[in-house]
Structure prediction request, 285 residues.
Amino acid sequence: MEPHASEYVLTVSCPDRPGIVHAVSSFLVQHTGNILRSQQYDDRGTGRFFMRVHFEVLDAGTDPGELERGFAWVAEAYQMTWRIVPASARTRTLVMVSRQGHCLNDLLYRAQAGSLPIDVAAIVSNHPDFADLAAARGVPFHHVPADSREDAEARLLELVDELGIDLVILARYMRILSEDVCKRLDGRLINIHHSFLPSFKGARPYQQAYERGVKLVGATAHYVTPDLDEGPIIEQDVARVDHAATAEDFAAVGRDVEAQVLARAVAWHAEHRVLLNGARTVVFR
Prediction:
C-alpha cells in the first residue's frame, strides 16, 4: 500500500542505554503519533542501538519541521544520529552504467512499475549504448566519456548537485571512482558486482569461475567507499549451478542475481531500512 502524506519514518542509531524506546514513544505520543511498525536492534558487540519506526501523525496540522524540532531534545539527550522523513517521499536517483544494461533495465522497469520508491532523474554512462533505452523510458541520458577521470567526475558531481540527487547507483559502471567522489557521496552511493571476489578479479570473471568448476554464482550490493569493493554490504544472494552449466549459463545466472540483489538493496535504502554500523549495516527488512 502507498503510504499516506501523514506517515513518517524515524531512524535512530546511538549508544545503547536504558530509556531510548520510552523516550521515542513519549515523543510520538506528544505529537499524536501512532506507530504502524517498529523495529529495533541492540548490537552488544559495539554497544550501539538501532531503531526504525514507521508512524502516522493524527494531527493534520503537523509538518516535518515541527516533528524535527520536537525530536531534537531526545536526539541530544541520547547522542543520536537520526532522521525523520515522509514515508511517501521518493528517492531522487542517478544511475551510472557502462555496457552491461541488465541492472539498468531492471531498475527502470521496477521504478516505473511502482515497485521501487525511486525517481530516476538521470542516467550517466561512459558509453552511448543505452541512449535509446533511456529515451524509451523518458529518462535524461548523459554520455560522459571517462577518458579524463577528473573531468568525468566533475561532471558527475555537477549533475548530482543540479538535479538534487539523493542516491547514485553504479549499475555495472565499470570505472573506478576516486577517493574524493566516494567521500562526497558517502552513504548514498551503491554498487553491484559478482560475489566471486577476491578469487576471480579482472576481465571475464564468469569464464574464470566456469573453468574452476564453481557451483555457486552470487552477487553483492554494497555502499561504495575508497576501499575498492570493500564497503558495507547491504545485500547478497547466490544461485546454484552444476557441471552441465556453460560459461554462458554462468553469466546469464549472474545477470539475474545481480539485478535482484541490486533492486532489493536500492529498495531498502530508499525506504530508510539500512543503517550504517561501522563497516557493516543493520537492515530492517
Notes: Helices lie at 20-30, 64-77, 102-113, 131-137, 149-163, 179-184, 205-211, 247-270. The domain at 91-283 is CATH 3.40.50.170 (Rossmann fold). The chain has a mean pLDDT of 95. The longest strand covers residues 33-43.
